[in-house]
Amino acid sequence: MKELKESTPTAARKKIKRKQLDIESDTSDKKVVEYKELSETEDWISEISYNDEIPICKENTAENDFVFVNFNTDNPPSLMPHTTPYVVHACHCPPTRHFVFAVNTEFLNKVRSKMPVPSLQKPAPVFKGTAVVDGQFKEISLEDYKGQYVVLFFYPLDFTFVCPTEIIAFSDKFEEFKAINTAVIAVSTDSHFSHLAWINTSRKQGGLGEMKIPLLSDKSMKVSKDYGVLDEESGIPFRGLFIIDGKGTLRQITINDLPVGRSVDETLRLVQAFKFTDEHGEVCPAGWTPGKKTMKPDPDGSKDYFKAVH
C-alpha cells in the first residue's frame, strides 16, 4: 500500500500509525490496511481503498464524518460480509469513485459476534467443493447427503503425522458407518491434487492408500471458516468434527487442538446414540452403546433406569 500523500493534513498524519494487515480479499486489487489511533482509547480502525492506484483520501475526512450504510457489492473483501451495516466515509474528491471504510474495533467485534457460527440444533453450514472419491475428482456438497447422517471432520494437512492415523481409521470403519446410513467426509485446506497424491502414497510411507471415504478440498478455506475451525494465522483447520443429521441439523461439535487425534469408535457410538434417540424418543446415559438400557426423559420414567442400574 502506498504511503500517505503529502496532501494529507499534518494533524491526521501525526494521529495515525500504519500497520499492514494480512487479510485475504476476494480479488487481488483490494487492499486492507489497519490504523491505530494514538489516543487514550487506542481503538483500531480498518480502512479499505478499492483501487491500489488511488491513495486513501484524507482531504475531506472530518474526525467524526461517518454514517451507517449497508455494504453490499458483488465481491466485497472477506472481512466484510454482504448486507452488513458499517461505519463509512465516502471520498468527496471526484473522479476517484472510491470509498474509504473506517470501522471502529468495538463496532467490528459486535458485527463479528453476529456473524453465523455453527450451533447445535441449527442447520449445518452448507458446503461444496471438489473431493477425491474412489480415486477420481468429484464435486460434492452437503445437499448430496440429504436423509443421511454425515460425519464431517477437518484435519490440518496432507502428508503429516496424526492426520493419516485418523483418516485411515475412519476409512476402515466405512462399512459400519454405512450400515447406519452415515457418510463420513474428511476436509482440509489442501488441493484435491494433493489429496490424490497422498492417497496414491503407500501407508508404509505415511500415505493413505486406498480410501473408502471422500477427501474434500477446501483450498479457499471457506468451509473451514464457515465451520469455525480455521486457524487464521496458519491457514489450516483445527481438528473439528461435526455430526449432521439427515435433516441437515448439527447434533454434535468437537474441536481438538492440533497434536491430539480423535476416536473413531466414539464418533460411531455418538451417531448410533443420536439415531436411537431420533427413532425411539428415549435418551442415552453416559457410555451408552447399542443394546444397553436407555431412559425416558421425565422424572417418573427415568426411575425405571435408575432402579435397574443401582
UniProtKB/TrEMBL annotation:
Q: Where is this region: Disordered?
A: 1-27, 287-310
Alphabetically sorted, this entry's keywords are:
Antioxidant, Disulfide bond, Oxidoreductase, Peroxidase, Redox-active center
Q: Which residues form the signal peptide?
A: none
Q: Which reaction does it catalyse?
A: a hydroperoxide + [thioredoxin]-dithiol = an alcohol + [thioredoxin]-disulfide + H2O
User: Which cellular component appears as one GO term in the record?
Assistant: cytosol
InterPro entries linked = AhpC/TSA, Peroxiredoxin, Peroxiredoxin_C, Thioredoxin-like_sf, Thioredoxin_domain
Task: Output the CDD domains linked to this UniProt entry.
Answer: PRX_Typ2cys
State whether keyword Protease applies. Answer: no
- Gene Ontology terms for molecular function: thioredoxin peroxidase activity
- State the PROSITE patterns in the record: THIOREDOXIN_2
This chain's protein is named thioredoxin-dependent peroxiredoxin
Q: Which organism is it from?
A: Aquatica leii
